[in-house]
Amino acid sequence: MRYASIVPDIAARAIDGSFDYYVPAGLEQSCLVGTTVLVSFGRRDVVGYVIARTDEPADGVDASRVLPVKQVLAAPSFDQVGARLAEWMAREYAAPLALCLRLMLPPGQTMKVAREDGGSWQLVIERARAVDDRWVSLTESAEGFEPRANARRQLRVLEALEAGPQRMAELSALVPGASSVVSALLKRGVVSVEHRRRIRGSGDEGSSLSSASAPRPQRLTDGQRAALDAIAGAVGHERGDVVLVDGVTGSGKTEVYLDAIERVRAHGRSAIVLVPEISLTAQTVGRFRSRFGDDVAILHSRLSVGERFDQWDMARSGRAHVVVGARSALFAPLSNVGLIVVDEEHEGSYKQDQAPRYHAREAAAELARLRGAALVLGSATPSLESLERCRRGLWHDASWTRVEMPERPGGAVLPRVRVVDMKREFAAKNGSIFSRALRDALLGVAERREKAVLMLNRRGFASFLMCRECGCVPTCTHCSTSLTYHERTHSLVCHSCGRSWPVRAFPDPSTKCPNCGSRYLAQFGVGTQRVEDELRVLLEGAEVDVIRMDADTTATKGAHTKLLERFDASPCAVLVGTQMIAKGLDFPEVTLVGVVNADTTLKLPDFRAAERTYHLLEQVAGRAGRGERPGEVIVQTYWATHPAIQAVARHDRSLFERYELEQREEAYYPPYSRLANVTVTGVGESAVRERCKALADAVRDAVAGPESEGRRRVAAGAAGAAARGAEFTSGPAQTSLFASPQAAIPAPPEFAWPGVPELPDGWEVLGPAECVKARVKDRLRRHIVVKAPVEADLGPLLAHAAATLPQDRKVTVSIDIDAYDMM
Q: Which of 284, 364, 268, 373 is nearest to 318 (CA)?
């Protein structure tokens, strides 16, 4: 008798893991690893996923009590390696195993079943079934066939088919009533009809972007050849070795990826390429299709469910061996993977913000190890974590090698960077959002008929409205965030929950402060809409195409590509946008890049704020001067002396790294530690506070060891009441326990209370405290932060601590390992 280890699709930590079922004789050929099945669990039937097949049940399991698999619902969607990757993710990120396995299911497959008329169960699929087209073609018998003179529709159908086979849908559009004509001709043997699988979601290769192709260069640079040699060595070792391609912007990293994949494909192995931004998809896919043709499948969120299914199925069926897409493309059902590429590896978008909260870079490293493949990380601004692993040389039994590519091909040079101190501009009575240097540079671009990019890390017209009389800033009634003013729609929008309220800013006579009734509710801050409007005024009459690209203008399908194609085709244009225009885009005609306000990300309450600012500025600066003409970058800032700004100005990363690593080491932040953010949310304040406090105690007990719980109970009578009600400060409420190293929050008095166990070296448990966003969608939010040694198994420890608490439906606990969003 055969047995199967099956994970019920019940996303709860209390029943996480796999369970043994026996496989009836009639299902032995179909109940394979990766199949979706129907099993009994408790007193109900549930969907489950097969992760292993064995000849015997697990040790200690009574074979006579093992239940059978009831039905196979879907063909395999992952193999044994996929199952092992899901198990690793569940353990590493403290996530239910069922949620990790869902990442590997076909797009559109749900966890719901419905009973058919015959009594069997069927999976509910959301618009993701295969589509077959009917194709009509002439047969040999058509040569001697003569239709009647008055059979006009037959004549038109035959004339259309003489040019070659036609899709039935297109034939019907050309000849009304063609379906009945084809049926009649089919009976006479004049035509034949066959069903062909239609592949949806492959429209990106039709982009007119000049950068959406990859002509083979005549020669490679020294850096490119060194990178390819290192990648070849990593592929040959077949143990998950990692190569970090550290190349300046425009150094030809994409050509390295293409060449490396060609070598892997020549040996019959497949490849996965991850890109961080949907806006890069058309360009990236075009380049890969120009080299690999129809061997490329695309996977990203802007495709419809049906389109994603067809592209996913191309990988599963072996019709495509190169998968390009966002982080979810990592779980494509490719077999024999030899190479995984993570482009712009430093990007925060590779971190999933919902359970399972995995990081695609880390999951890719584990997948490479399991597959015996090589992992290539590419970036002009590598993350500090990746650089630290390369310094060590070995990480989790895999070799980490850094290869530098310091030059641009064809003699192109890095752009000149000018930093403009906006404090001096204000002192010089310049009230414009454009400094004098940036204004003159934009006028110069218009005069020379060149192109420019203006980057602002914010959407909307202004960051917020504020009453000049009482100081009131309108905030969302459901979230603890200020509302963003959108001038075009005259509305205040919450970018946390999406709600909006109609309002007009001063000097409109209808303006009214919600607090004091004053009409002086004015705009503060700068948004992309305002930059676009002021730019049009500045360049009025210059025949410059001003194009805005942000979350508002790219909300519809294909909008990214259309805007970029418009920018590409314009003889003289300025592209205004948010972070999405800062990386990956390759337009040789761009000679000017302007950063309207470099300080937006620098002042966030996040220890990664400086690193993110440096990455963003260096990346957007790299959009200039990629062609024959030299490039110029103008960075407007109120903090011109900050090391991140100075490093960009001099193209010298070491200026930033030395400063930042000193700060990180002193404050014990990554890469010198691991960091987890555990968030508790709920509607009731008391329930959230009590749960978060109990969870913090459970985590400290788990870290300190088995004796700590007893010590806590001894001291509970003396300190319990004070501990439950105390906050971090006796003055104004502390909004977050998390801050940048420059403003690290001192240890709260709670840490000195009796009953709090002493933690081992390398471990810190901070909290509980309110999150920076203390309320979102009417739910209160508190959190604790855990710092641990870099080698620590943080996920299992926090999962165990959460599992020791009794279930409470009033609150939700979210565990984020190696957290990126601390607010």
A: 268
d(CA 523, CA 458): 14
Which residue, among 677, 692, 685, has the nearest Cα to 480 in the 3D structure?
A: 685
Q: Evaluate whether residue 355 is within a structural domain.
A: yes
Calpha distance 183→179 (Å, rounded): 6
**729 or 291, greater pLDDT:** 291
In this predicted model, what pLDDT tens digit does every residue of 658-671 receive, in sequence order? 999 999 999 999 99
Flag whether 823 is in a domain.
no
Same domain, 583 and 441: yes
pLDDT the model gives residue 526: 76
Give the total number of structural domains in the chain. 6
Query: Is residue 656 located within the same domain as residue 737?
Result: no
Q: CA Rg, the chain, in Å?
A: 30
Q: What is the pLDDT of residues 388-399, one digit of tens each?
A: 999 999 998 899
**Domain range for 685:** 674-817
In 10 A of CB 722, how many CB atoms?
Answer: 12
For 462, phi then psi, to 5°, come to: -145, 160
Question: How far from 709 is each of 161, 701, 705, 749, 755, CA to CA, in Å?
Answer: 81, 6, 8, 20, 9
Which two structure tokens, joined as six digits, stand for 1? 């008798």
Helix (H) or strand (E) holding 775: strand 764-776
Q: Are residues 46 and 24 in the same domain?
A: yes
Do 537 and 510 fall within a single domain?
A: no
Residue 204 falls within a domain, yes or no?
no
pLDDT of residue 14: 67
CATH number at residue 777: 3.30.70.600
Question: What's the pLDDT score for residue 279?
Answer: 57
Buried b / exposed e along 404-433 (16+ C-beta atoms within 10 A): ebebbbeebebbebbbbbbeebeeeeeeeb
Say whether pLDDT at 744 is over 70: no
Q: Count the Cβ atoms, other than its own, within 10 Å of residue 222.
A: 10
Q: Which two tokens stand for residue 497?
A: 């929950």
Which of the pair, 554 or 448, is modelled with greater confidence? 448
The answer to whether residues 496 and 558 belong to one domain is: no
Whole-number pLDDT of residue 278: 64
The CATH number of the domain where 108 resides is what? Answer: 3.40.1440.60
Comparing 274-288, 396-410, 571-585, 772-786, the range with the smallest average pLDDT is: 274-288
For residues 252 and 227, is the Cβ–Cβ distance under 8 A? no
481 and 541 both lie in a single domain: no
